[in-house]
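Components:
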Amino acid sequence: MPPAVVLVTGVSRWLGGALAAELAADPTIERVIGVDTVPPGPEVLRRLGRTEFVRADIRNPLIAKVIDSAAVDTVVHMNISATPGGAGGRVPMKELNVIGSMQLLAACQRATSVRRFVLKSTSAVYGASPRDPAVFTESMQARRMPSGGLGKDSLDIEGYVRSFARRRPDVDVAVLRFAHFIGPRIDSLLTSFFRLPVVPTELGRDARLQLLHEDDALAVLARATTGNFTGTVNVGAPGTVLMSQAIRRLGRIAAPVPGPAVGSLSRLTRRTGLVDWSPEQMHLLHSGRVLDTRVLREEFGYSPRYTTSAALADYGRTLAPVVAAELIGSVTGGAQSVVARFAGGMAAGRSLLHRRDPAPVVPGLRAVRDL
Amino acid sequence: MPEARVIPLRPEDDESPGPPSSADWDEQLAGALEFLRGRLTGDYDTDEFGFDADLTDHVLLPALRPLFSRWFRVETQGLDNVPDTGGALVVANHSGTIPVDALMATVALHDEHPASRRLRLLGADLVFQLPVLGSMARKMGTTLACNEDAERLLGAGELVGVFPEGFKGVGKPFSERYTLQRFGRGGFVTAALRTGSPIVPCAIVGAEEIYPMIGNAKTVARLLGLPYFPITPTFPLLGLLGAVPLPSKWFIAFGEPIETASYGPAAADDPMVVFNLTDQVRETIQHSLYRLLLERRSVFS
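Structure:
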């Protein structure tokens, strides 16, 4: 049964706005209500269509009234801030993420109309350490629990969502653990990172990256909202790239930083407003993480249209490379033609000399003696 | 196996008079430039474990080859015991202070096996905690020695290499050479049982003598966070020169595969089956070690 009234939190951000717009374009859905603490920008607002926007803080009990009065049956919780900068610091970020989610879940628990709850979670719940297996399945846990930031918040939120599911067994709960978003329009951690002309990396480390194209992220969210999948699913594109490889493909310049200096560098870039990093996300440079997506393909029933490489290339179209691939191609190509010409000259010279010389003895050719 | 080539019997009949080396070097240089272009633009593939086949084939394996054929003169035996396709678990003894034996087994299976199999090694977590070494190991196809990764690789039909002795094997004193240490908790057997992959026992002779470890500076090791700090007759006495391995003669012998599929995946939870199989593998390797040692004339020839 398709949902009648959908409530989307975090609608002022690109992905939330895009999801609300997609749902609003579906005539079978009666109402789409978008909630956020800040009003959406003009670009998002234009696309939102018939979405009703409610400016409310999910930390505020007002949200319960919205759910009750509109008889919301499906809640998509996307208002989880990944970086402290967007929320105004680590303390407000934690408050918005954890307390906000608790308030929202409390409101949902009281509202009898709610039948479905979709959580936009993150693969950060798996942490990232060299002691971890290369590929995470949904049943695995972080060997070293994320000690702070998004990973810890998301673990907490997933815990609250699980206990909500226990208290309201009639509600279908879907938890989507997303890999890193990338794409020409989305504003994510990696998109701002790769926009730097000189990209800091950790010296002697090369993280494996699994990405997800924004279009696939949107399609998965829409499907989770209107479909009937329950449980936890990893969402990531097939294939991986190494951090160094991604930097080269995008034509950036890597700046290796010794491990101990990474923390202070991340503080510096955050303070200067270059990249909104949290220290725990810098750990990503360390070992990276890859998700197993069997459940996504087989049980959830979605195969991403973009592979990690294709998603990266699609994002790369919007980025002016610092070092153009054509430049490298022309330099190596030029060197190749020089080599070919030089070799041709050498061969010609040799053949001139060769005419006078007796035929060279072919090495390794020897008569075989019968024994 | 060398490639078949046409050898002109009478060189004066040959149409191309230029010596073959001239064409070779410029082609090689052009190939190297093409490789460089691919590297600089990121135009190559890596897998989810971080394995970089392009780098392994063009840089890492060529760098190891002289060590394999000239320095250690590795002889392989029983390569037909390693299946051409599908998952299998190669279990070998570990020795040599520095795990050079793992690298040589990788070269042996890639260069001398008819199907050019890639050995995907399982490494200790210490390897992946170290910078440079950790990322290099991943690029060469190594991953963390844990059941999740081993089963995933075996399930994907890869040839997985494991050294169950771990640091107890590599860091044992020279006086204990060629005696197998305890085989961990048998995690490798459960991985093979769960995926139904055959276990190929592998004995490596020669690696024990490359850095004869006559002492262990435990305090230094503890300070550096290492499991042991080797003292050999030449290291650290001669400094970097002491890090040159002794040119011992090597043998790598692959034994008959031990099939595990008939036990069924449920047997992985039966400790008795796991212990028995672990012992069987361990004894097979120990016996082939003794056999190879008897066949070997001296350490260096």
